[in-house]
Amino acid sequence: MIVVFADDLSGAAECAGAAVSRGLSAEVQTVVSSESAADVVCIDTDSRSLPAEEAADRIVSMATEAAALRPAWVFKKCDSVLRGNVLAESCAVASVFGRASLLVVPANPSRGRVILDGIYRIDGRPLHETVFAHDPEHPRHSSLVADLLGVSEGDVSVADATSPADVARHAAAVDGRTLPVGAADFFAALLARSCPAATQHDLSTERLADTATSLLVCGSAASWQRRRETALALGIPVFGMPDDFDAAEYGNVLDALGRGDGAVIGIARSAGLAPAALAKGLGLAVSGILSATRIDRLLLEGGATAAAVVGAQGWTRLRVVTAPTTGVTGMVPATPPECPTVLIKPGSYDWPEAIWPA
After folding, report:
1. What residues does each domain of the chain span?
2. 46: which of 13, 60, 216, 259 is 20 to 30 A away, CA to CA?
3. What's the rounded Cα separation, in Å, for the pair 187 and 257?
4. How far apart (Å, rounded) are the C-alpha atoms in residues 298 and 341?
């Protein structure tokens, strides 16, 4: 068994999807369970927004439970632009598993996110000049990785990486004394090294069914306008919180889903509410919808949104059933009742075209 610790649900799901794409079985857990027989267990610690000390304490507790599973190796998934308590959480995992050093590879060259000479760039632009400079919780005001991580010395190596070959080279350097920390590309490279016989799934040939009734939940105010425009162009009803999601519109959402039209709901504006309160509102809204009507697919965008919805449903173990495209992971609760397939992706990436009707 391989164990991954991620600070949000979409990160855990992303790594689980990478495992399934290599022919491995995978499960996402929000509470550590010894009942899983999956090859890869990805644990969501839900700690990105916590104070660093509280996050570290939570990691130590969950990592201690996971150590009883006797994993072959462990990985600390971090946000690709180093939001959250990356260093504190990584040191906590290293302490539990007896790792003397950290190798941090947050770059995701497959997504145009690279590090060269310690400077983070996305599609050629310094990080602090991208939309991440305006992140509501973790604004990226520097492009220097040392500043973002908060490290200047010690047994922590932050690696440059501008290509998949760079990432693979760093994966080859990981030994039993080192805790690998990084984004999805680094985890995929480690899987390729440790599981060379696994069958790699060709994601390009798999398309999501166009006939499924879908509810897309967008928890990102920054992404809302793009989702809204795409959905309306395809004739999919759109409902934005808080303005368009009152009691009357709730009925309209149910009508749209009942007709099989699908629907998109999300955060149209903050209305002065904190991100956590907005995510909770979305979670409660989705819970009400699921209790009132049947849908085939539930698409969740962003870790906080996914966690709010999954938490409202009381799901603590999600079994991966499909990885239809890179960055999107499809899951169902490990212990049913019947429910839709839950598709989760990180908030900072776009949905692939395959989710929309042709």
Report:
1. 2-203, 204-355
2. 216
3. 37
4. 6
Query: What is the CATH T-level fold of the domain 2-203, as seen in this structure?
Result: Rossmann fold (3.40.50)
The CATH class that applies to domain 204-355 reads alpha beta
Could you report the per-residue pLDDT of 285-307, keeping only the tens digit for each?
898 899 899 888 899 988 888 99
Look up residue 347 and give its two tokens: 């908030």
- Ordered strands of the 125-126 beta sheet: 113-116, 119-122, 125-126
Sign of the alpha-carbon torsion through 208, 214, 220, 221: positive
Q: pLDDT by residue (tens digit) across 87-108?
A: 999 999 999 999 999 999 999 9
According to DSSP, residue 59 is labeled: H
Q: How far apart are CA 206 and CA 103, in angstroms?
A: 34
Report how far residue 19's alpha carbon sits from residue 178's, in angstroms, rounded to the nearest whole number: 21
Please answer whether residues 27 and 316 qualify as being in contact, where contact means their C-beta atoms are separated by less than 8 angstroms: no
What whole-number distance in Å separates Cα of residue 305 and Cα of residue 279?
5
**261 exposure class (CB count in 10 Å sphere: 0-12, 13-18, 19+):** middle
Segment 170-199, tens digit of pLDDT: 999 999 999 999 999 999 999 999 987 666
pTM score of the predicted model: 0.89
DSSP state for residue 108 in the 8-state scheme: B
